[in-house]
Predict the 3D structure of the following.
Amino acid sequence: MFSFKKFWSYCWGTVARPGDTFRQVIGERSKVAYGFAAVMLLCVLYSVAVLIGFFKGATPAGYEPFLRIPTESYYLWQTFFTIPVGLIGWILFAGAAQLLSRSLGGQGSFEDNLAVLGFPFILMLPFSWFPEMVMTFLPWWWDAPAWVASTPYRVGVSTVWFLIVSAIALRQAQNLSVNRAVFSTLVSFVPSIAVQITYLH
């Protein structure tokens, strides 16, 4: 049975002691539900952020959105497709990792991957979501040089942390060596990040 108390402890454990935490998650009967909840937490919070950003007049910056949606209303629509895109990215990540890790001697199941690879998504909260959520209320700073310059570093730190913890998760799920877990994680992340970059801004 899903427990919110356990869920929050697993979220904290992903930050503080990921190896032990993922072993516990894999042993849960509702393990996929825990991974799903972690992804949904990030997606829902980002949906709120982009909706507030839309009402504050924010528009995608940096490159032209792939979808043929007017730039001025892009964040309104992103409010609705952040959740499905996030879930698709999670499933692609777990599925690609399953195929690759099994070919490298992995012993875990797809469900194990879904369970543990959901939790690294919450690592996007402190360096990506939180600063952007704060900035939605400070539109006069959107073009500030310091904020613009910080974006690659914030995204970079979040992504590297995400990949490191994902490799730990995959190693626990599939019983792989460190090198094979890292390789599987990096390669499997490609289809997931491709979907995210295409649709989310």
User: Anything to note?
Assistant: The longest helix spans residues 74-103.
